[in-house]
Write a structure and sequence with these properties.
Elements: E1 2-9, H1 13-21, H2 24-36, E2 39-50, E3 53-62, E4 80-88, E5 93-100, H3 104-107, E6 110-121, E7 125-136, H4 142-170
Antiparallel strand pairs: 1-7, 2-3, 3-4, 4-5, 5-6, 6-7
Helix pairs in contact: 1-4, 2-4
């Protein structure tokens, strides 16, 4: 399943980019994720700015009720993952991928990768365009589960956008 999430900002792209690069983004976003999404916990494992690239890794654990019909196949530990991303300051673009925090044979059942780009807009505005793919290789629940996951992905990007707005106004 392909998806796109777009957020517009009433701030210049340079201010938005400073918020994206900020080591404070994680601390400002974590409480919002706990209250506005089904993220139980999030941990920043890496945040390194070197040679014009920000490399980061965040580890997530979701707090979701697993439906009875899926409980036989989906365990709570299958609801944890790491997000790796590399943001290039020159192109204002990031590439990201999700690595499930599960046994290797389970990890093969899920794949999610994508990009996001910050774009300058007229009038000192900015836009963030997130494009990605999400694939769950579990036959009986695939379509329903992908839609549920995508709903949470959108909530997470929405929470991040609000946090970026707040951080960018502090810069």
């Amino acid at each position: 399943m392909k998806f796109e999430v777009i957020h517009e900002f009433d701030i210049p792209v340079d201010a938005l980019e400073l918020a994206v690069l900020s080591p404070n983004l994680f601390n400002a976003l974590a409480p919002r994720l706990s209250s506005e999404t089904r993220i139980e916990s999030v941990e920043q494992r890496e945040h390194v700015l070197l040679n014009g690239k920000l490399v980061k890794c965040w580890s997530y654990r979701a707090n979701i009720r697993i439906p009875a019909f899926a409980a036989k196949y989906v365990t709570p530990d299958m609801c944890a993952w790491e997000e790796y991303s590399s943001y290039d300051l020159e192109t204002h673009t990031a590439a990201w991928r999700i690595k499930p925090s599960v046994k290797p044979e389970w990890a093969e059942l899920f794949e999610s990768t994508g990009t996001y780009v910050l774009e300058a807009r007229a009038g000192g505005r900015a836009l963030r365009r997130v494009e990605g793919t999400l694939e769950l290789r579990v036959p009986l629940v695939r379509a329903v589960a992908e839609r549920l996951i995508l709903g949470e992905v959108r909530k997470t990007f929405d929470a991040e956008a609000e946090t970026l707005r707040e951080l960018a106004t502090l810069v």
